[in-house]
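Section 4.2 – Deliverable D4.2 (structural model, holo form)

The reporting period included a commitment to supply a predicted holo structure for the target in complex with iron/sulfur cluster. Inputs used:
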Amino acid sequence: MINLSASKLNLLLDCERCFWLVMVKNVKRPSGPISSIPIKMDSIIKGYYNRYRGGILPPILNGQVKGRLAVGMPLTLRYEPFKGVFLQGRPDDYVEQGDENVVALDNKTSSKAPPEIHPSHQLQSDIYSYLLMKNKYKTIPRAYLAYFSPRESDVDEVMTLTCSVIEVCTNPDRVDSLMRKAVQVLNGSIPYPGQNCPYCGWIQSLAKFPMVG
Ligand code: SF4
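Output (structure tokens):
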């Protein structure tokens, strides 16, 4: 069974070798300590959204999002495009629009909204659209990315958040071919290192040196 997600497919695009190592050998990239602030902000934003669910749009999204927060949507969307290959995604929320179309809404925390959509967020949005479509929801190729940032304040003042929403035009049609590519890579032997990452070359240079002096 192969379980794919936006982060796994992003890894595939980043470096096929790293993707293969994680999926086939369970060798993961080292990671440093993870800040818990985004997790706390995420739960605060979700609590705020829930106060408006089923009613009006949360005021912080007014004028930036069309529709209202959807009710009764699943936490996880899952689909099996080929036998034994699963793709799953977990949008932070969903917006139900006036024409009953449902689209994904993902919250991001940042110091300010980015000037353009990061490729990994684009792929994540493409996958949400794809999963909504494949799970037979009425949807359109759109998603929302809501960037929450702290307003300027002093450290001993109450810190409030501002929100800038980007409406994303999604491309769910690219997802099938990306999954085919993932299966092809997983069924092959270990790929060569990616062109844009220096670490494999660095590891090879390290091998010339003994572990002890
Ligand atoms: S090139 Fe970089 S990303 Fe690719 S396998 Fe090596 S360390 Fe991982």
